[in-house]
Design goal:
The chain has 306 residues and is of the alpha+beta class. It has 2 domains: 93 residues, Phosphorylase Kinase, domain 1 (2-Layer Sandwich); 151 residues, D-amino Acid Aminotransferase, Chain A, domain 1 (2-Layer Sandwich). 30% of the residues lie in helices and 24% in strands. It has 7 helices and 16 strands. Strands 8, 9, 12, 13, 14, 15 and 16 form a 7-stranded antiparallel beta sheet that branches. Strands 1-2-3-7-6 form a 5-stranded antiparallel beta sheet. Helix 1 runs parallel beside helix 7 and helix 4 crosses helix 5. The longest helix is centred in the middle third of the chain and has 24 residues. The two termini are 22 Å apart.
């Protein structure tokens, strides 16, 4: 399928609830929100000047897939992603929104990222190199980059509106939220990771790490935002995985690597992504969806018989 133009902004005739790096969220009455995933892409805390076509659809449809796979043991905020359920005010915007929206229940967001790491990569590898710790806990000596850890580790982080999220210890999380809620977050995150990593492994992918967001609805813990997408997760190709390397991935790392090679200082306005980087990034997102769900996001159209 040939990619169209990236959708980098929305302007819907609804009250705007929030605008994030990727999603524009609108009010749908007192208890529901409309989340629209654009094709914007961010890296190193900057939104890049051009987006990745269809990225928002991958993020939305993969989240819906994971919500449906995990709802039996973890409640989530999804109400619908079906076009007929859009409000009448958006009747003329259905083609634009199809595939990239979720109608969700409004929850009281818990302002911490719930990260689970099964492999030593990213900021976890950096922390280990500096102090032989992960999330403040001591780790065995001699571990290497991308090595699988003995067991998945819950590694919470502050959720920053701007700038970097900061890793904190579980003890710090308990001080902020109380023992009961912090323990619920840890246990729910680990259960979700174990389920998803097992499914990904059957699809030939390694779920190296991922992050979840939770909220409260009537005191019930609910999974919100997105789930187990290439934005919130690090997916590696199992067939070529090697300890001590940065494995082939199906996530934003490809864009981060290009930005690093470009010489950008991460302070000034970020450079525009070249067309070939855009195309290859789009392909990685679509491949992640296809591998995980078992079918392409955009099925090929049947050839017309002559």
């Amino acid at each position: 399928m040939i990619a169209g133009a990236a959708v980098t902004e929305t302007d819907l005739p609804l009250e705007l609830f929030s605008r994030g790096k990727v999603r524009d969220t609108y009010v749908l009455g007192p208890d529901q929100l409309l989340m629209v995933a654009t094709d914007r892409i961010s890296a190193f805390d900057h939104v890049l000047p051009n987006g990745i076509p269809d990225r928002g659809k991958v993020l939305t449809q993969l989240s819906i897939y994971w919500f449906s796979q995990t709802h039996s043991f973890q409640e989530n905020h999804l109400v619908s992603g079906m076009v007929p359920d859009l409000p009448a005010a958006l009747r003329d915007r259905r083609d634009e929104l199809a595939g990239r929206f979720m109608i969700v229940r409004k929850a009281k967001r818990i302002d911490f990222e719930c990260v689970v790491r099964g492999y030593l990569a990213g900021s976890a590898w950096k922390e280990y190199q500096e102090s032989h710790t992960l999330a403040g806990e001591s780790m065995p000596p001699g571990l290497r980059e991308s090595e699988r850890m003995a067991y998945p580790t819950f590694s919470p982080a502050t959720k920053a509106e701007s700038g970097h999220d900061e890793n904190i210890t579980f003890v710090q999380l308990k001080k902020e939220l109380g023992d009961e809620l912090a323990t619920k977050l840890r246990d729910a995150s680990l259960e979700l990771y174990k389920f998803a990593s097992t499914l990904a492994e059957r699809r030939g992918l390694i779920l190296a790490d991922t992050k979840f967001e939770f909220g409260l609805i009537d005191d019930d813990l609910v999974l919100i935002d997105e789930a187990l997408t290439p934005d919130s997760s690090r997916y590696w190709e199992a067939a070529t995985y090697q300890i001590g390397t940065s494995p082939q991935s199906y996530d934003k790392q490809f864009v981060r690597d290009w930005l690093t090679r470009s010489g950008w200082d991460r302070e000034s306005d970020p450079p525009r992504l070249p067309d070939d980087i855009v195309a290859q990034t789009r392909e990685r997102y679509l491949t992640a969806y296809h591998r995980l769900v078992g079918k392409p996001l955009f099925p090929p159209k049947p050839r017309n018989e002559k």
